[in-house]
Design goal:
The protein has 5 helices and 4 strands, in the order H-H-E-E-H-H-E-E-H. The chain is an alpha+beta fold and 173 residues long. The protein has one domain. Helix 2 packs parallel to helix 4, helix 3 runs antiparallel to helix 4 and helix 4 runs antiparallel to helix 5. The protein is globular and about 60 Å long. The chain starts with a helix and ends in an 11-residue tail after the last helix.
């Protein structure tokens, strides 16, 4: 079977990293619900961070928030489709570094899907600030996704620019 072939040819830590990152995110979201409720509670951590419980029924930065009822299925379906595509990319990635970074994206997406299925929305609680002014609120899964996206892009650029130009030949003197 093709899945068995891919898994046996590419033994990697991603099969352990993804569940560990999902668990870390879900545990911190559980902690946020237990500690930061009611939502009006805010814990300042200086000029750049605060802890503030929020529920995001949309996707990134609250975009595509279709409210309650069947409208909540749109962001869920979109997230599941994107996670499936990222999962395929993760398995087929051509380098271990790219696979690791894509695994971060997959872990973040999977964790947010689990949270959305369990709570009807994604739990956000890390508020990023600029000298006390709130910019946006996220969670660990958002950090995994961001670091993964930046890393995957960087790995792709390194791989691209480390290859010789098409048609180039090298002489050994």
């Amino acid at each position: 079977m093709i899945t068995e072939t891919l898994m046996s040819e590419r033994p990697t830590a991603m099969w352990f990293v993804v569940p560990a990152l999902v668990m870390a995110d879900l545990v911190t979201k559980f902690w946020a619900h237990a500690t930061l409720a009611p939502a009006s509670l805010e814990v300042s951590l200086g000029s750049f961070l605060a802890l503030h419980l929020m529920q995001n029924s949309g996707v990134a930065f609250g975009a595509l928030d279709f409210g309650t009822g069947l409208g909540r299925l749109i962001p869920l379906g979109l997230t599941i489709a994107l996670a499936a595509a990222v999962g395929i990319w993760m398995v087929k990635a051509s380098s271990e570094w790219r696979r690791f970074f894509v695994a971060l994206i997959f872990a973040g997406a999977a964790s947010n899907i689990i949270d959305r299925l369990a709570n009807g929305a994604v739990t956000d609680f890390i508020e990023y600030r600029w000298f006390g002014e709130a910019l946006f609120t996220g969670n660990l899964a958002d950090i995994w996704i961001s670091v993964g996206a930046i890393g995957a892009f960087g790995a792709a650029m390194l791989q691209h620019f480390s290859r010789p130009a098409k048609g180039a030949t090298f002489r050994e003197d």
